[in-house]
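Morning!

This is the sequence you dropped in the shared folder:
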Amino acid sequence: MVYKDSLKYSCLLWQGQEPQILRLFFSRNLYNIHRLAGGHLELLHHAANILQALPVSAFFNVPHGVANAILLPTIVEYNALADHGKYFNIYNYIAPLPAALEEFTPDMLVDAIVELNDSLGIPDGLEEVGVTKDKFDAMADDAMKSGNIAVNPRSTTKKDVLALYEKAFSGLE
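The structure's back. Tokens below.
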């Protein structure tokens, strides 16, 4: 409940703010932002996001929050098959205009996350932060060692992780 409330209130505060103000806020409140982001990912139950972001940070010195933000649209799209109503709730927290349940589709959340990332100046893909494809195999090996793999909503293999890195390399189109 605390995470759900923090997401709701965070999104209400962020809506309508200028990107420069948001970047200043984030840069001065990184610890709290990390805690909030972790809670939001927990609410989404996207362990695949965390397990894939850690190697991006380790191999390429990309800030962990940035790696999470870049990967999140790809992982949300991947895990959509396992959604049981959480995507609708999250969408209505972050979208400028809420959707009715009967009109909602999971791709609407993916689009809303992409728009939020764009408004914050988050790079579209891993390539933009210096990630190179030659490290994908080693990164996937590291990701598979994470305990988070067991709690992702969908069963995830190394082949899946490699495909997700490939998809996130240039960003979603």
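Headline: The longest helix spans residues 64-79.

More detail when I'm at my desk.
O.
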